[in-house]
């Protein structure tokens, strides 16, 4: 079974975290054919943290997990912190294929998204 | 003349700021027909700051400016800080139409972007 784990930084502001959870729900509705499991997790400051999110996916039957960083910039979190956490989880679960997707800022679709947001300016 | 001002938080890490400037360049190349001027600016920690970015657009001949927040979550920056700065700039330039686009996390295209990023997981 394939899982997608949307990973955000996490905020002290509950509403920001709730937005990430809601986005994961939208993602689940939209790509249920490609991924059997879609969940969200946080790097810090909010529940659930990434290792727990990965454990939940595995408990639900995932054999492959794509970690999808909800980050705009290629900072330390994207290039060090999240890969380090994934390495630890991979060592604990050698039979599970855990892979890391590029951060959002790297997406070719970002320009299209920006242009479409600009149209909704008020 | 119409201007688009991509506004990011700003980072102490130069590479993160450079990514925003590079993204504004891509945006310029992609929507030059819709916008005469495309620039970037930062809320804090990096040059140029938003008021200076708005001044630059006006100096270049902009009569309308869309401020496009490169932010994922609807936090204080998106709902208070950036609107407050825009209000001050609007008061200083009553003849310029300065409007604010939704933050990225609100975009209907975000799910598509996430799904397409997941395909590039390694």
Sheet with most strands: strand arrangement of chain A: 2-1-3-4
Point out poorly predicted stretches of chain A.
none
Given this structure, which CATH class of chain A is correct? Alpha Beta
Question: How many individual helices of chain A?
Answer: 4
Q: How confident overall, as mean pLDDT of chain A?
A: 95
The third-level CATH topology of chain A is Rossmann fold
> What is the share of helical residues of chain A?
40-55%
Q: What is the correct CATH architecture of chain A?
A: 3-Layer(aba) Sandwich
- Count the strands of chain A? 4
Give the tally of structural domains of chain A: 1
Of all chain pairs, the largest interface belongs to: A-B, 50 and 50 residues
Shape of chain A: globular
Q: What are the secondary-structure elements of chain A, in order, as H or E?
A: EHEHEHEH
Strand content of chain A: 15-25%
Structural class of chain A: alpha/beta
- Multimeric status of the protein: homodimer
* CA gyration radius of chain A, whole angstroms: 15 Å
Can you walk me through this structure?
Chain A is an alpha/beta fold. Chain A has a single domain (2-119), classed as Rossmann fold, CATH 3.40.50. Chain A is 44% helix and 19% strand. The first copy, chain A, has helices at residues 14-30, 50-59, 76-92, 110-119; strands at residues 2-8, 37-42, 64-69, 97-100. Chain A has a 4-stranded parallel sheet with strand order 2-1-3-4, with helices on both faces. In chain A, helix 1 (14-30) links the parallel strand 1 and strand 2. The radius of gyration of chain A is 15 Å and the shape is globular. The mean pLDDT of chain A is 95. At the A-B interface, strand 1, helix 1, strand 3 and helix 4 of A face strand 1, helix 1, strand 3 and helix 4 of B.
């Amino acid at each position: 079974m394939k899982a997608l784990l949307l990973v955000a930084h996490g905020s002290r502001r509950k509403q920001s975290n709730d937005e990430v959870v809601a986005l994961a729900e939208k993602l689940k509705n939209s790509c249920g054919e490609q991924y059997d499991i879609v969940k969200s997790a946080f790097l810090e400051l909010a529940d659930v943290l990434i290792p727990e999110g990965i454990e939940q996916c595995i408990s639900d039957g995932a054999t492959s997990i794509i970690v999808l960083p909800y980050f705009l910039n290629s900072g330390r979190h994207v290039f060090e912190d999240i890969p380090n956490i994934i390495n630890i989880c991979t060592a604990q679960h050698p039979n599970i294929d855990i892979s890391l997707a590029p951060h959002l800022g790297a997406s070719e679709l970002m320009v299209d998204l920006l242009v479409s947001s600009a149209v909704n300016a008020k």
